[in-house]
Amino acid sequence: YFREVREKEPYRCQLMELYSTALWHLQKEVTLSALAQELVEQDRNCAAAWCATGNCFSLQKEHDNAIKFLQRAVQVDPSFVYAYTLLGHEYVTTEELDKAMSCFRSAIRIDARHYNAWCGLGTIFSKQERYQLAEMYFKKALSINSQSSVLLCHIGVVQHALQKTDMALETLNIAISKDPKSPLCKFHRASIYFAVGRYAEALKELEELKAIVPKESLVYYLTGKVHKKLGNTHLALMHFSWATDLDPKGANSQIKEGVDPSLSRTQVEEDSSMTQAGEDYPSEGSSVPALDSSSQEGAEFVTLRATDSDESL
């Protein structure tokens, strides 16, 4: 629909920041780059144009440049809420959490119902392991956007971190009922099943996930961990091998831990990177960069980035 809008009204800037975020999630670098250039050429005083440019550099992992252009968006229009949120997520990616907090709070001051910013605050507190605050802010975001399965998923993750396992599973069940094929929700439910020793249910969930995201290394890695717990050494090694093939760099150290925990400084019984959604970004962000990465995206099950849809924040 956004593409159709561009064809019919090529000089429209309104809502093009959302179009750019959609392209960011889809990793369409060429289309996003073209959109950013066209918008900037049309109106250099349009905040949406600089948001698109920031998203373009973010997709290319040039976060410092992305921050620079998103700051420009805020400069040309200090009341443009979405720019603050995108900027906040970039700061989260670069681990500048104080600056990210300031951006999200600025967005909320301008629009108290901007749920993306509330979610951003929850993401920051979750990264800081201040899970009670994270749950509170995620629930605030949910009170504004009650149909978001992503927000429910984040709530379930922090509830599990707070040792509220039954409540976490109930929350994730609600999220999956709203979006039955959500890879993010199903992955976290499988992670919790694994953490509490419900291996058969974890395997069932993971097999369904393979059909939805057949190239997501984390799914195969967790499947390998489940088989290792069940004593299925051959199946465990096979899944670790597949995970390595899909993501040679990101999975390599994790695979070594899975095959031989002694290779790691600390034996990880419950892989935090799994149970917390692979939190490494993006956003509306959290970078669940979209599910191709979490690389921010291969399927970064976790990259959350700002967008006004229920699929990604």
UniProtKB/TrEMBL annotation:
Region (Disordered): 251-313
One Pfam family here: TPR_8
Coiled-coil parts of chain: none
Placement of TPR repeats on the sequence: 47-80, 81-114, 115-148, 217-250
InterPro entries: TPR-like_helical_dom_sf (IPR011990), TPR_rpt (IPR019734)
Keywords assigned: TPR repeat
Family: Belongs to the APC3/CDC27 family.
This protein's name: Cell division cycle protein 27 homolog
Taxonomic source organism: Timema podura
